[in-house]
Amino acid sequence: MSEEPRSAQPGAEPILSHLYRVADTCNSYCIVSERRGLLIDCGAGAPTRLRESMGISDFDACLFTHHHRDVCQGAPLLAKMGVPLLVPEHERHLFEDAELHWLTRRVYDSYNDRSTYNSLVEAVPVAESLEDYSTYPWRDYELRILATPGHTWGSQSFLVEIDGQRVAFVGDLLRDGGRLHTLHDTEYSYGGWEGLVQTHLSVCNLIREAPDLVCPAHGEPFADPIPQLEQLVERLEGLMKSIDQSPEMYGRFRAEAVTPHLIQVPDACCTFYCLLSDSGAGLFIDYGSPNWFHFGVAQAWGEPREIQRFVLHSIPELREGYGLKGIDAVIPTHYHDDHVCGFPYLVEHEDTVVWCHEALREIIEHPERFSVMCLYPKGVPVGRAFLDGEPQQWREYTLRTWHYPGQTEYHCLILVEADGRRILFTGDSLFKEGGEWGSPIIFRNAFRPDSHRRCVEVLRQLPEVDLICPGHGPAFAPEPGWVDSFAARTDRLLSEFSDLLGADRFGPGVDPFRARIIPYTIAAQAGRTFRVEVEVRGYGEAAQRAVIRLHLPPEWVSLPSVEIVEVLPGQVSRAVFRVTPPENVKPLRRTAIAADVVLNEEPLGQVAEAMVEFGPGPRLVLR
Predict the structure, then answer these.
(1) What is the rounded CA–CA span in Å between residue 120 and residue 79?
(2) What is the SS3 assignment for 79-98?
(3) Is residue 623 part of a domain?
(4) Same-domain status, 137 and 168
(5) Distance CA 136, CA 27 (A)
(6) Is residue 621 part of a domain?
(7) How far apart, in whole angstroms, are the C-alpha atoms of residue 160 and residue 52?
(8) Cα dihedral sign for 345, 407, 188, 103?
(9) pLDDT at 3 over 50
(10) Which of 226, 464, 540, 560 is the most exposed place for a label (fewest CB within 10 A)?
(11) Could you give the count of Cα atoms lying within 13 Å of 157 in the half-sphere of its Cβ?
């Protein structure tokens, strides 16, 4: 299956003094330094036969722009030669777990039109994931890794200076003449145009990078690229208007002044806010996905191994339109992926510090410990954590936060006075539904019996506010009686829940995390012991005796084998176990374990589970 294929083209064409193109099933490019080469895509493997014509003895590595077979079907040949393969972080599984991809790919009743069918048919070893917006150093060169979704969800482009030219290797994002290589690959959902929207965003971002030379995987390399890139943007916008899409929302972002020093970006997937200092420094409230189409890919049409992907947006508009000079800090209203997936980018590339309420610290730093909904797997360090109502000074502003467990347990309110107005940032926990104000009830967001009543208590202790800034939609002035409306809706719903479940079942009947295993996702190695905790929450009016055992695969060992803890009403108790898988284990990449709990002689069964993952996998957590 991995025998050397034949190339239709015999030669390697010099593009610059230190850059060659090899025409094969795609354009492969080779950067040359001191008789060594760095490949960008490999086609069917033709570059392996043309090393001498490029003046090199071997390849140090091959970087892939995306997973389609026409750019990587020679990867097994390179792997046999010992060439390290570096792949986009969001498509790693389509290279190293190709067999699993085909085993789990849905065929019948599928509405996922993604072009992942055009993937390798055999797995190849991956040396490294190329992380979006990171830098890959090679000899005298530094390649910037750009997130450029469109042709595929995980596509990347590489920007590097060669012989005094800023060269962009763009894969199949586009081709010369201001055109696309294919249109069908931009259909992600059934009849949808999500990839077209992503292409628009990616090309707009590429224009800002101002390359001197663009090298596509198909078509001709072209210099002076900006006119052709702008022509492509115009063509994309013309088509998007014809199919009733609004291109202004997806590649160019509106930044609007709510007050002179508070800017909102309502076109992003979540509305995020920038509080501006007179110094030009900014503080962000949330920063997530660029738009709903982008967010919907991982949410609704994602492949089994995918996660939400961040693509840079809105910051250029804030710099150009409002004089933003830097981003000192970012504060999450809550942990949801559409609100925080931009945090790792801010930390790594803008030197931004994450601040948050103490109730959010653990889930922001260690998402792997949780199994709640909308969880983004890349954790970031928290530089400062707040307690309820504690004043926090940033530049000329004083901020206060309160734990506000509405849409999720891990949520807060943020209050600041700016330009003479009291402004309240409410995230996703204040919306009008059926004429009443309230917060969405999502049980697997760690809803607790008293969650919304605690929200009402917080709202009642706040001073009167002039503006409410929600997590979706523009800022607005609150109407009279909005807190009373929230309280009335909360009391009615909780009463109906209690009536439906019965008073004795109300607590565990609305709390899906009565018991949980921490961490939920466990990185393991055969024969190596790892530590887990089992947490049990007490309900009722009396203490309970919990007997806890782990349910493990055969030959796995748990110490202790059983743990007994006392669980007090309204409190959480934890049992600690050390687990060792056998040395000769041949696990799947992911193995489930469970916790079996008995409360006061009542068997609850395997009421909590966790996932044990073997092997290196993609590096998802920022440390």
Answers:
(1) 13
(2) HHCCCCEEEEHHHCHHHHCH
(3) no
(4) yes
(5) 21
(6) no
(7) 24
(8) positive
(9) no
(10) 464
(11) 31
Q: Residue 187's domain is classified under what CATH number?
A: 3.60.15.10
468 forms beta bridges with 424, 476
Q: Which residue has the higher pLDDT, 110 or 486?
A: 486
Neighbours of 555 (CB within 10 A): 11
Give dist(CA 291, CA 289) in Å, integer: 6
Is there a domain that residue 509 lies in?
Answer: no
- Cβ atoms of residues 446 and 408 within 8 Å: yes
Q: Indicate the residue type of 145.
A: I
Give the model confidence (pLDDT) of 118-146 as tens digits: 999 999 999 999 999 999 999 999 999 99
281: buried, middle or exposed (CB in 10 Å: 19+, 13-18, 0-12)? middle
In this structure, are 497 and 526 located in the same domain? no
**Domain presence at residue 272:** yes
Write the CB contacts of 61 (distance below 8 Å, at least 6 apart in sequence): 38, 39, 83, 84, 85, 86, 127, 138
**Domain co-membership, 191 together with 333:** no
pLDDT of residue 265: 94
Residues 421 and 448 in one domain: yes
Based on DSSP, count helices (H) and strands (E) in the chain, helices before strands.
14, 36
DSSP 493-520: HHHHHHHHH-GGGHHHHH-TTSEEEESS
Residues 381, 484 share a domain: yes
The position carrying tokens 């992003």 is 268
Question: What distance in Å separates the CA atoms of residue 176 and residue 229, rounded to the nearest whole number?
Answer: 9
Residue 4, pLDDT above cutoff 80? no
Same domain, 342 and 205: no
Cα–Cα dist 440/321, whole Å: 35
Which of 504, 539, 567 terminates a domain? The answer is 504
What is the distance of C-alpha 291 from the center of its chain?
A: 13
Q: How many domains does the chain have?
A: 3
Torsion sign (Cα): 455, 458, 463, 468: negative
Read off the pTM.
Answer: 0.88
Q: Cβ contacts of residue 569 below 8 Å, gap of 6+?
A: 538, 539, 540, 541, 542, 543
Same domain (yes/no): 264, 234: no
**Which amino acid is present at 56?**
I
pLDDT in tens, 546-579: 999 999 998 999 999 999 999 999 999 999 999 9
Label residue 243 exposed, middle or buried (CB < 10 Å: 0-12, 13-18, 19+). Answer: exposed
For residues 268 and 235, membership in a common domain is answered with: no
Q: Which helix (H) or strand (E) holds 392?
A: strand 392-394
Domain limit, last residue, from 188, 222, 248: 248
- Cβ neighbourhood burial of 377 (10 Å; 0-12, 13-18, 19+): middle
Neighbours of 197 (CB within 10 A): 29
User: Do residues 66 and 151 touch, judged by C-beta distance below 8 A?
Assistant: yes
Min mean pLDDT across 1-10, 29-38, 545-554, 609-618 is at 1-10
CATH number of the domain within which 572 lies: 2.60.40.10
Q: Residue 537: which domain range?
A: 514-614
Residues 452-480 have pLDDT tens digits of: 999 999 999 999 999 999 999 999 999 99
> Which residue has tokens 């079907």?
73
